[in-house]
């Protein structure tokens, strides 16, 4: 059943081509329905203003404030050498703080006439810092006169909705566009079953849309929000419940390890006992492998909690049962590293069929894009004959040429770096769908796991193996206290003096070409310097504070053989300090590396910093992580870094990370390529709604898997799961 045409109407017809183009390009809005679901981020009350005191840096903001004073300055510049350059500086206030606005050149005339002291207006622009003060350069503004008929109508009601906006389209223009399409809201089809809606006392969808865009009271907003949150949670959980239902119908080969096979021999060789957590998770995995439906399991483990060991035992169990196992890594460096560590852990068991190999052994092959032709041919042959029980590789594993004898288990490492089609292609390589184990070292709060990986069962490894050392983390404020940075380099020298090694991480490589065509905006000019680069940093350190130490670089654009050689030298202890980009973020394991200095740490996300930090303290000596930043004490960036320094608990940090990033698209914007699905639902705050929606969805799907009785829900599902997202969920 199609959506009622009114909501399918393209915006081009309703708003005109120019506005529609900006909405499509910058906000991903194409139809009337899309625009109705573009909800206000917050509301301003006439008498209450946003606090200028807590404006976020580098974000596009809308504030309502009053002009305190305006001054026109003339100055000489390259474009106006005779002192004819003009700059208008306007100070606005809202009682909580003051903010400077600047206009240059020909752009000063209109605001100079309009922004007189005492005028009230809405201002929109990107917050930057100039001369240590916050400012908006060339903001757009809309005067709040409240006298002319049109303005009164537009700003009807005491609550002004503030929409997520872009530099090309201010909040108030979006508001006007929404007023134009609001009558169509009456025709919105309701996805919630009536019994559910009435049982929970939720308002109908058309009413919710009206109240979210034109609330008269705060109660209107609350009604609308709780209704729209339920829509999002429920439709998403129905999509996931249908996936689980479909997966449960698929056949798979049950894989049970032999009583005295490869797995037993491996366990007998282990020089340590598995942690309780590893034993518990292994049991969950083995129980899944023994069933005739494909396992779909997510294994979450803190950095260094021993996930690889659990995954290896699962792979050995499958080989024991006559199948093959494939492990997919996101990068070549990581695939090589996994291959090395698996072969080391297995010893002679990894030399099946070779002289000196164990009777029960199997072959473990590596397959990456940069391998030589002969090695590659041999690896492909070992896979198709079944000689190799375990293959470890990058997405080269997915190419058409790769054939398996009997693929029984796929282990995907660092799920979030893997595209959708890639996992799908690999699943198609088995005679029947193989079992799937997805591993991630990014701790995911329970609700996110229920939302993003809702079609996977979850196992969590939360104990660290014995012998792992604690990591001390400190923030180094390089701008406020330069001597702290000098001390950081001394600490690196001290670690090297104790025969340990160190990493220095930078945000970029440094051989990027500057694009001459790229014009810098006034904000960029006033912005901070570009992020520190690996090549420059390595050079400065080798000539300066780390003179005399062995310093090498590692980054993603190096030739794979060179990368491997650098990693081998570092692992062997021949290099003292490795200056790298985030290529070392996952899976790099050098127990002798004890110190890490992260330059411009404010340029990395919380989870990323936590991942990076997990590369030190992997041996018996304590680890040290120094987060270097030039951001001022009070900035949100510094608070983020303080949070990372204060705890080693990845789950706690992932909560902070999510709260600060305001969710983004939990379904993985980059991977799905589809429209943002969560607009209203906050995964952290709305844990209860998500859990309840999951139960309701499971009941609805169990009773009616095809949703024949709920056309409104089917339509909403189609809208959510436009093709790409359906696939994305499928391969969760």
Output the keywords:
single chain, six-stranded parallel beta sheet, globular, alpha/beta, 732 residues
Protein model, in words:
- The protein is 39% helix and 18% strand.
- It contains 28 helices and 21 strands.
- Strands 11-12-10-13-14-9-15 form a seven-stranded parallel beta sheet, sandwiched between helices. Strands 16-21-20-17-19-18 form a six-stranded parallel beta sheet, with helices on both faces. A five-stranded mixed barrel has the order 2-3-4-6-5.
- A hairpin with a 4-residue loop joins strand 3 and strand 4.
- The chain is globular.
- Mean pLDDT is 81; it is low at 147-157, 519-527, 662-676 and 726-732.
**Uncertain residue segments:** 147-157, 519-527, 662-676, 726-732
Largest sheet, in brief, is: 7 strands, parallel
- In helices, the fraction of residues equals 25-40%
Strand content: 15-25%
Distance between the termini: 28 Å
Mean pLDDT across every amino acid position: 81
Main-sheet strand order equals 11-12-10-13-14-9-15
- Put simply, the count of helices is 28
Structural class: alpha/beta
Q: Radius of gyration over alpha carbons?
A: 29 Å
Structural shape: globular
Number of strands: 21
Write a brief caption for the model.
This protein is α/β, with parallel strands linked by helices and 732 residues long. It is built from 28 helices and 21 strands.
